[in-house]
Amino acid sequence: MGKTVLVTGAASGFGRGVVFGLAARGHAVIAGCQIWPQVWELRNAAKAEGLDIRVIKLDVLNEIDREHALGIEIDVLFNNAGIMESGPMVEIPMPVFRSVFETNVFAALELAQGVARSMVKRGSGRIVWTSSVAGLVKVPFDGAYAASKHAVEGICSAMHEELRPYGVEVVTVNPGAFRTGFNDTGMESMDQWWGQGERVVEHWPVRELNRQHDPAEMIAAIIEVIEAEKPRYRTVRPASAEEMVRREQQETWERQV
């Protein structure tokens, strides 16, 4: 039986792939895009593929957009919208750091709260959060994004236990490095402000991201989590990233200054 699924951050990357994949499999999909030009583009792309996708404007930072989305009854929220800002923790401007938390943590939680209240009242529903491998390990020079995803991990672990008695499921998907463009532009983002002040630490080494994985693997895993009767609480892809996470978390207990 098809599900009604709201996807945030649907204009590109994992969100876009999941929207098209779910629609092709017969689910009723509401695709949330940040700005109107993305809405128009995605509607036309769906039409070209012969897919019936409801595309709405959903800037997760916009209260009007959130309230509009919360008026739609859904079975699953794929809480996916996010941004990445890079830079060493001692240098990153606080407005930049705050912007990451505003999108990845506060706006995402506010939307999840609204959806969860409706789900609790009817006794069913699932909230799938895009976390990250960065939410489970150390990520030098990408600490703002990693910190936001560590916060997501804390939120989800609490929500999972709090909502389970009411029939509402909370799970995470944790991508590693995939070729969506998100990591590439995220690495570049610090260059916007780096030259605007005196720096006391070095710019992180510029390196080519030539070992990223095909996003189709992660998209398929997310669709499986959305469709599964009993999904795992945490889904990490690729498998090599899961192995790295387990190894690094163990090493943390033995780390010395």
Quaternary status: single chain
The gross shape turns out to be: globular
Radius of gyration: 18 Å
CATH topology value? Rossmann fold
Low-confidence stretches: none
Which sequence of SSEs, written as H and E, runs from N to C?
A: EHEHEHEHEHEHHEH
What structural class should be given to the helix and strand makeup? alpha/beta
What is the CATH class? Alpha Beta
User: Can you give the helix content as a percent range?
Assistant: 40-55%
Q: Would you count the extended β strands for me?
A: 7
What is the average per-residue confidence, as pLDDT, rounded to a whole number? 97
- Specify the CATH homologous superfamily: NAD(P)-binding Rossmann-like Domain
End-to-end C-alpha gap: 54 Å
Number of domain modules: 1
Number of helices: 8
Sheet having the most strands: 7 strands, parallel
In spatial order, strands of the major sheet run 3-2-1-4-5-6-7
Into which percentage range does the β-strand content fall?
Answer: 5-15%
CATH architecture: 3-Layer(aba) Sandwich
Could you please describe the fold and organization of this structure?
The chain is α/β, with parallel strands linked by helices and 257 residues long. The protein has a single domain (4-252), classed as 3-Layer(aba) Sandwich (Rossmann fold). The chain is 46% helix and 14% strand. It is built from 8 helices and 7 strands. A 7-stranded parallel sheet has the order 3-2-1-4-5-6-7, with helices on both faces. It is globular, with a radius of gyration of 18 Å. The N and C termini lie far apart (54 Å). The mean pLDDT is 97.
